[in-house]
Amino acid sequence: MHDLVAITALSGAEPRVDAVGGVTCTEYPGVAIASVAARLGQEAAARKALSNLIGAPAPDVGQLAGETVKAFWASPDQWMIEAPFGTHEDIADQVKAAVGGTASVTEQTDGWTRFDLKGEHIPAVLELMCMLDLRKIDSGSASRCAIHHIGCFVLCRSPELFSIYGPRSSAGSLHHAIITAMRSAL
Q1: 42, 81 in Cβ contact below 8 A?
Q2: What is the pTM of this model?
Q3: Which CATH number do you get for residue 64?
């Protein structure tokens, strides 16, 4: 029998943490992710089912919503769902049970990596990395953008806590872009 050991997207046994000038970048592997796409003609029913799942109205364009299970808008009638991995390892099955035949659900956990930026000077870092209108971003905002030529999602959880999702296959490049921006801005 093999003794497999889980590693983070940056190939560590523990999540990587970097701090520069009052901003901390933390690799966050403890999240389960699934995508939801409403089926043609089932958009309203899918929204309702998603709302029941997250305990809040389904997020509209540029929004993040929910309690333990959260959803953020990905494109028209499509959302990404996130929840703690420890309690939602089977997130795709849980979401599929909640939305039934109203939407298509795809497991995304191993396809994405998440970095959390914490501190009060995050806008200075983000303005070097991506073309987001930071004056319009507040708690509960979710934006799709490119960082270092990598398609990402940027979520504003609070003015001092942002999450960046990028493809796991680009974790090293994305991390490098974040740390370089932190060193340049701070």
Answers
A1: no
A2: 0.96
A3: 3.30.70.1520
